[in-house]
Amino acid sequence: MSSDLTGVPGWSDVPQTEVDRYRSSLGPAAVENAGLSSLDCSLFWKSCASELPALSRLALRYIFGTVNSADAERSFSLYNLVHSERRRSLGEKSLKQLLFLYFNRFVGRDFFD
């Protein structure tokens, strides 16, 4: 069971020993003990905080994240605006840079004013 989680912010702070302990005993045992009932993820990770401090902190940070498609929709709308008929010949690198500039154009506006 190999997953590449290196792209998850905070993953590099989790020691491999915690990951191994979770994968070998704590995670499977929790699922097995839950049986047909639902597993309370929040309660599970809070109860693991003493044994898996870094991993439980990371899990609790992401459990309650708001999931929606607004960022993806905004990104596609922006892509359609930037990738107009006049800009069809842009290379991939230039297009990514232009999208980055458009997407972040308001960041720091108040800071510099």
TrEMBL record:
InterPro entries the record matches: HATC_C_dom, RNaseH-like_sf
Residues spanning the signal sequence: none
Coiled coil: none
GO molecular function, one term: protein dimerization activity
Record-annotated HAT C-terminal dimerisation domain positions: 33-102
The protein's name in its UniProt record: Hat family dimerization domain
